[in-house]
Amino acid sequence: MALQLAEEKGQLDSDTSKGWRIKPENFKKNYTPVEHPKGTFLLYEIRWGKSPKTWKKWCTNDDNHHAEINFIEKAWQEKNCHRTMPCSVTWFLSWSPCEECSWFIIEFLKKYPKVTLDIRASRLYRDCEQQTGLKELVKRGVNISIMHMGDYNYCWRIFVDHQRNQDQDNHYMGFSRKICDWNEKLHSILE
Q: Which N-terminal residues, if any, form the signal peptide (predicted)?
């Protein structure tokens, strides 16, 4: 899956333009916590200082890198004009970071100590190596949680190119139990 940075396509950075948003079918396919898509989507918001404005975009994995690394190497580098200003970054990930990406994220945060990172994942990798990476991220101050229904609704409203009256409710059927399962799994990993 090719990296999909909206600005690379020459699209506007305005909330009035839906050009940078993802297609509803991509959101449903990749963020449904009961599915197991092959790729990873990363929806993100960057807020510098105490500004009420956020910069919102998305990226995916490509043939060379996972979505987290693409964010750091491409999207972050592209927008990082405020290195000395505190910055909060929120990621809505379709998969939790793998161990390799976790260490890459840790190095990124060492390089940019004024960045705080909040990761909200739709689902977790199951093998132990990947879970070790999550523990290391939390030890270094990264907030990691499972996306809850409010996150799904927020992402649908903000990041998805849907019709104004298009409803997402039917798609959420059955999410609650799986969200609880993933939450329990995350808590057991981080204990």
A: none
HEC-encoded secondary structure of 50-71? CCCCCEEEEEECCCCCCHHHHH
Q: Is 68 a catalytic residue?
A: yes
Tens of pLDDT, residue by residue over 118-171, are 999 999 987 776 788 999 999 999 999 999 999 998 999 999 987 665 555 556
Question: Please, are residues 7 and 76 in contact by the beta-carbon 8 Å criterion?
Answer: no
In a domain, 1, yes or no: no
Residue-wise pLDDT tens digits, 35-54: 788 889 999 999 988 888 88
C-alpha triplet 124, 186, 157: angle, nearest 5°: 65
Greater model confidence, 20 or 58: 58
Q: Comparing C-alpha atoms, which of 10, 7, 9, 41 is closest to residue 25?
A: 41
Rounded to two decimals, what is the model's pTM? Answer: 0.84
Closest Cα partner for 91 from 124, 131, 45? 45
In the chain, the number of structural domains is 1
For residue 142, the domain's CATH number is 3.40.140.10
> Choosing from 7, 35, 68, 191, which is the catalytic residue?
68
d(CA 77, CA 186): 30
